[in-house]
Amino acid sequence: MRDNNSGYVEIVDTYEREGLYFGVVRITKREERAALEFGVSQAGYFALKRVLGFRPFDSMPGVKYQYSFTGSYVSTADGQQQRIPFRVFVEQGGARREFELEGPRDLLANLLWFLRLTSLAEAGHLRRIGD
């Protein structure tokens, strides 16, 4: 797998804890890398589960998939769209391709926020997950 130096937001995990939903992303900013936990809606949780369960390539035992949000998305002119298509790079071994998946507006807003960070200090209020 490639190192996530491209500036994309790597989608790492999603889970439910005590009735709340969380996602985990890995980002690199200014040579510093961290995996960060953030709150998501139930719809965001299910969208992240769909992303992390997406397996477009042949199964290769022991070779994990990697998913990265590219920052590209489709929005309607009226801004009322509830489920928004967004682009994700999916990688497994040497296979790498961009796909369009979809999720709720609040999840997209979170992923865009991570993408636009200039330093990890801006995300200092978020829980860091062992990296």
How many distinct domains?
1
Q: How much is the average pLDDT? A: 88
Taking pLDDT < 50 over at least 5 consecutive residues as the criterion, the unreliable ranges are: 1-5
Oligomer state equals: single chain
Portion in beta strands: over 45%
Strand order of the largest sheet: 6-5-4-1-2-3-7
The percent range for helix content is 10-25%
> What class do helices, strands and sheet pairing give?
alpha+beta
Please provide the count of β strands. 7
* Shape annotation: globular
What's the gyration radius in Å? 14 Å
Distance between the termini: 15 Å
What is the ordering of alpha helices and beta strands?
EEEHEEEHE
Largest sheet: 7 strands, antiparallel
Can you count the helices? Answer: 2
Structural commentary:
This protein has 131 residues and is of the alpha+beta class. The protein has one domain (9-122). Helix content is 18%, strand content 46%. The chain contains two helices and seven strands, in the order E-E-E-H-E-E-E-H-E. The protein has helices spanning 42-53, 105-116; strands at residues 9-17, 20-29, 32-40, 65-73, 83-92, 95-104, 127-129. A seven-stranded antiparallel sheet has the order 6-5-4-1-2-3-7. The longest helix has 12 residues, at 42-53. The radius of gyration is 14 Å and the shape is globular. Mean pLDDT is 88; it is low at 1-5.
